[in-house]
Amino acid sequence: MAYILNGAGQRRLDEFFSGIGSILRRADRKESFALYACGLFGDSERKSIEPIAARVCGKPERCRAVHDKLLHFIGVSPWSDRIRRFAADYALLELAKREPIEDWVIDDTGFPKQGTKSPGV
Q1: Per-residue confidence (pLDDT) for residue 44, from 0 to 100
Q2: Does pTM top 0.85 for this prediction?
Q3: I need a labelling partner for 33 at 20 to 30 A (CA). Which of 25, 68, 75, 105 fits?
Q4: What digits encode the pLDDT tens for the residues 28-61?
């Protein structure tokens, strides 16, 4: 199912990215976050680092550098609890604008695993 981002959605996304960016502070970390988030939000079926890097690198000779940059951002860079708190608070605020939150149902079975080599497949 495709989602068309309207003006209100774009404003919310800009606000979210701006909030995360203010916590990340450094330009290189902001850029890596934007690349990774856009890859996750994109319409590609695969959402791991390698296909995200391949889609955004532009020139084939840059793909390795983009791949390494994203791997470093996700795996090595320090993650502040402030980032997690901001994301959680932002999501709760936006959900509560539509209707009160009364119950939580957590179901992680909504996305079938793919491949044969990934853990849990």
Answers
A1: 82
A2: no
A3: 105
A4: 899 999 889 888 888 888 888 988 998 888 778 8
Domain hosting 47: range is 13-98
Mean pLDDT of the chain: 84
Q: Is residue 112 part of a domain?
A: no
Assess if residue 114 is contained within a domain.
no
44-49 long-range CB contacts below 8 Å, 24 or more apart?
A: 45/114, 46/114, 49/74
Separation of alpha carbons 16 and 93, rounded Å = 12
> What is the token pair recorded at 82?
């402030």
Please indicate, yes or no, if residue 118 is contained in any of the structural domains: no
Query: Residue 20's CB: how many other CB atoms inside 10 A?
Result: 19
Residues 38-44: contacts with CB under 8 Å, at least 24 apart: 43/2
Residues in Cβ contact with 118 at an 8 Å cutoff, skipping those fewer than 6 apart: none
Q: How many domains does the chain have?
A: 1
The full DSSP string for 5-65 is: --HHHHHHHHHHHHHHHHHH-SHHHHHHHHHHHHHHHSS-S--SHHHHHHHH-SSGGGHHH
